[in-house]
Each structure stands twice: as structure tokens, then as C-alpha cells.
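Please check the following for our workbook:

***
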Amino acid sequence: MDDHRARSAAVQHHDITDVSTDSHSDIDVYSLIIMTERNQPLAATIYRLKTNVKTAVMIAPATGIKRQFYHNFASYLAKQGFGVLTFDNEGIGESLSSELAKCDASLISWGRHDMPAVLDALQDEFTDATYHLIGHSAGGQLIGLMPNHQMLASVFNVACSSGRIKNMDMPYKLKAMGFMDAFIPITNMILGYTPLDKIGMGEPLPRGVARQWREWCNGAGYIKTAFGKSIHRHFYDEVNAPSLWLGFSDDDIANSKNMDDMIRVFTKMPIEKRFLDPKDFGLSGIGHMRYFSSKTHAKAPELWQMAVDWLNEKESPVRQ
């Protein structure tokens, strides 16, 4: 762990800009740039109270989702006293530093380089705290690629699963097959990237990200398909941070079977799984994305409170 911190510190540079104060609280919100070991700049945002922060959280985003999507949720956590860092993965949003067709980022590089650098930055920003990860979809799937995972005191995953198409129900399965087997390869070939924005699914994806996404979902699911092939060293059998996994009955992607698929990959992680019905919270739906919606929070504040309660319960020294 110390070796990784030393390596990362050598290449990491913070450029603090855009300092502002939330008008409804004592929260400071400011931007910074994090350099990865690939020498790629990642755009990030810090949310913090003016008082001393004892619990710090990195929010790891879903595939192709910009950090602004998590702004309201991050602000809410900061108002509860937590330090929060949101970020754009390489090639996404403000972390796109070259022509997209020339970006060679991948899901593997996101987990192996982006997320460790972000966790290092979280420690630099909040030096006297415990460190936690809230993962949305891919943000929770890629934890086992992080060489500094031992610094995490806990994990809170939302809509995190293997994404295996075989386990999806009709008619969504047909839609997913068309997307994976036609839209991704055709657009990658023609454009050099996958334009998720054209179908309302997020930001345009670097071709390597989209290609691995397709391969993993068509195979045994996220990560497991790549073991012994594109992934030869990982930490999925070492991660032992306690975790809470939230899933929703109307999520076509992270259904219960796919959640269990992903959970089985983390062989040493203590896991609590909650598979919830939106109707029990007075909601018409949550699906794969709407947990982080301010509208969801307004109607069912207990859902975001679950994250607060979890972080408060797990505020303890990191395991050695």
C-alpha cells in the first residue's frame, strides 16, 4: 500500500479552481485535477463542510456518467458531515483530454488507474478521516482492480451487478443484445467510439470501454469473463471491506441474479444485500439510475438515509 501511495504521489497534481459555497449550507464545493499513473488528468469535485471531516467518500460513477449526475447526492452527504469526492473517468466529461476516437481508456484502466488515483486524492484532501466508496453500477464492479483497496473502510454499492445479458428478462434482453452486438461494434468501427449520448444513455464512450463492456456482458459478466485473459492480476479475492449492496426490483440490468453473480466474485467481502421494491417507498420506479435523483430523495428520503446510516456505522479505522 505504501509503495502505491508513493508512486501515485509522484504523478498526482491538484489544481484547485472554482471555489464556491453552497448557498443553503456551510458546504465548500471546489474542483481539482487528479493525475493518474497513466499521466491522464481526471476532473473531480470536492464537497465538504467547513468543520473537520472524519468520514470521506469517493463516489465511483456508472459507465459513461458524468460526476454532475451525483451533485445533489454528494451535496446531501456533505451536509451530513461527510467529505465527498466525485469524478469523471478518463475519456468522460471533463476528463476527456484528447480526441475521443484516440482515447485508449478501458474499463480495466478505469479500475486499475483512475479509481486508485481518486482514492489517493481523497486521502490527500481529508487527511484525518476514514475512507469509503459509494459505487454506482461499474463504479462498484471495478473495486477489485484497485491496488489500494485496503484503504477502504467500507463499500456502499447501488445497482451493481455482473450485467450478464443471459440473466436479463424479455423484452429488455433483446434491447440489450441489439445494443451490445450491433450498436457498439458498428459505431466503434465507423466513429471510433460509441455515442451513448445519441440514445440517452450517458456520455460517448471510448472504444476500449465499450468493447470491454460488450465482451463482459456477453460472457460470464463483468470482470469474471476477463480473468486469465485481459486481467491477469486482480484483488477480487482479497477485498474485505464490509459492504452494502442496494438493488431494485424494476432494474432490468442489475436484477437479483446479476447482483448475485457480481457478489460471488468478491470472495472475501462481507456483504449485505438489500433488494428493494420501489412501491414499498411510494415510488413508481427507481430502475438502474434513479436512486441518485433528487426527485427520488424528495419522495423517499429514507433511501439516501440508508447511505448515511451505513457510513456512520462503518466509521472506524481501516483494517490492516
The domain at 2-164+234-313 is CATH 3.40.50.1820 (Rossmann fold).
